Each structure stands twice: as structure tokens, then as C-alpha cells.
Amino acid sequence: MLKSDKFSPPARAFWNKIPSDIQERLLDNAWCSHCSGMTTITDYTGTIVKGDLILDGFCIRCGNAVTRLIEGNVP
Question: What pLDDT digit, counting tens, does each position of 36-56 carry?
Fold first, then answer.
């Protein structure tokens, strides 16, 4: 499911440090404002913003744009 060409190099490095089972849980846990519920993010890209990984993609059910933030440096 990961399309590395859609990730910035720092985002790819961040994502690759996350175990694959946790990656799947993160992808299956995105909020869709159109569906008003949790969904799976699909066709996503990854960037780093202020040390956090931002996944931008689409809801698997309705196709609405969704974003998943994965915090970086958590104390």
C-alpha cells in the first residue's frame, strides 16, 4: 500500500521506522468529515511538517480528502 515515490525522503524514513502492523492501524484510523467517522486512508502521500508525519489521502468509502497526523517527537 505504501507508494514511496509519493513520500518526501524524510517522510519515507519516518514511516519506515514504524512497524508494519502499526502502519496498518494508523492507515485504518483516519477521520472522514464527510462520513463523520473513522475510515481507511488510501492513495496517500507523506510529508514532514514540524517533525510530524502528515499523510494526505482519500477516504476509502466516499473519496473525500482526509489527513492523518502522526506525531514525531513526543516527550
Answer: 999 999 999 999 999 999 999
38 beta partners: 31
Cα 8 to chain center, whole Å? 13
Which grid coordinates belong to 58? 482519500
C-alpha cell at 49: 511538517
Grid cell locating 3: 507508494
For the chain, which residues make up each domain, given as ranges? 4-70
SS3 letters for the chain?
A: CCCHHHECHHHHHHHHCCCHHHHHHHHCCEEECCCCEEECEEEEEEEEECCEEEEEEEECCCCCEEEEEECCCCC
Question: Is the pTM of the predicted complex or chain greater than 0.70?
Answer: yes
